[in-house]
Amino acid sequence: ALCTGLLAPLMAMQILLLIDERRGWQGFRLALPITRRDAVLGRYALLAAVTAAGVAVGMAGCLLAEACVLW
Fold first, then answer.
1. pLDDT, tens digit (0-9, with 9 covering 90-100), for 26-58
2. Rounded to the nearest 5 degrees, what angle is found at the Cα of 14, between the Cα atoms of 13 and 19?
3. What is the pLDDT of residue 41?
4. CA 46, CA 54: separation in Å to the nearest integer?
5. Are 4 and 59 in contact (CB under 8 A)?
6. What sign for the dihedral angle of Cα 58, 59, 65, 69?
7. Rounded distance, CA 10 to CA 3, Å?
8. Which of these, 57, 38, 48, 39, lies nearest to 10 by C-alpha position?
């Protein structure tokens, strides 16, 4: 559960970064009234939130599966 909760968000973020690069999002982002530092911090905050959610869902699934087996 922990490995799935950690790897899935990393793969998803890599895909999102590739899509951003292909569609020219960087030029648009530079036009926004935010600093590059804010943009980078936002990416890391999103990655941390998605990873935490993935770990929580994975652990809940494991606990549910264990409860079903023991019942």
1. 788 778 898 889 988 988 898 888 888 888 888
2. 95
3. 92
4. 12
5. no
6. positive
7. 11
8. 48
Higher pLDDT, 33 or 9: 33
Instruction: Give me the phi and psi of 23, to 5 degrees please.
Output: -95, 5
Give the position of tokens 């943009």: 39
Which residue matches tokens 């973020």? Answer: 13
Extract the tokens encoding 41: 């911090």
CB-based contacts of 13-20 (< 8 A; 24+ apart in sequence): 13/43, 13/46, 13/47, 13/50
User: Taking phi first (over 0 means left), then psi (-120 to 50 degrees means alpha), and beta for anything else, what does residue 32 get?
Assistant: beta
Nearest-angstrom CA–CA distance, 58 and 35: 35
